[in-house]
Design brief:
By secondary structure, the protein is an alpha/beta fold. The chain contains eight helices and four strands. The chain has a four-stranded parallel sheet with strand order 1-2-3-4, with helices on both faces.
């Protein structure tokens, strides 16, 4: 297949191969082991119908099904339920699978400076204070509203404080960090170390 051709062309065919995908890319990563030898895959914010894993233990002669790590967000109940079903289906097949739930994160005065290059502690505190003053945070510092459908509210509050490119949907760092703090549907790097450690302890690499 084309993936095997690519690995051979680049001289990677002797290296262990892992996959990571989020949202629709997560579905791709979840199903890729049926078509390509992997040592592990991380499926973020996505679940697939659990029946696809029936018989996965014998997906191909000499090609064991790899460990799958599912990373999902706590506020997305539908995906969380689907992930639980996927992990159960894989476990029933005698395969290695684990889920990691990402929960809402409280904002603090240093939240933005700790997570975004180019935003210093002073600006970070101004952003936090602006959100708090606008009653967009609760008493624990958690966002009161899903930042995607309510972007007009927080963008209006933060616009005077940072360049506009920092606030652009899907590309600006601030919307992405707010989506992550809300824990609904966003790609996440916070779990990378846990993912790598789990792969290292479970994958069949030599």
């Amino acid at each position: 297949n084309s993936a095997t051709t690519l690995l051979a062309r680049e001289g990677w065919d002797a290296l262990p191969v892992f996959a990571l995908g989020a949202s629709s890319g997560g579905a791709f990563a979840a199903l890729l082991p049926f078509h390509l030898k992997l040592e592990g895959a991380c499926v973020q914010i996505m679940a697939v119908p659990p029946q696809v894993y029936k018989g996965a233990a014998t997906v191909a002669p000499g090609r064991p099904f790899p460990p799958l790590l599912f990373v999902h967000m706590a506020r997305d109940g539908r995906t969380a339920a689907g992930v639980a079903q996927d992990v159960a289906a894989l476990t029933q097949e005698g395969l290695k699978a684990k889920e990691v739930a990402v929960h809402p994160q409280p904002l603090s005065p240093s939240f933005f400076s700790e997570r975004i290059d180019g935003i210093d502690a002073k600006v970070s505190k101004k952003l936090y204070d602006a959100l708090k003053h606008a009653l967009l945070l609760d008493n624990d510092g958690l966002l009161r509203y899903d930042p995607r459908p309510t972007s007009g509210k927080w963008r209006k509050v933060l616009q005077p404080l940072v360049p506009s490119q920092n606030l652009e949907a899907d590309t600006g760092p601030i919307p992405q960090e707010l989506n992550l703090a809300w824990a609904g549907h966003e790609i996440i790097s916070d779990t990378t170390n846990e993912m790598l450690n789990w792969f290292e302890s479970h994958a069949s690499t030599e």
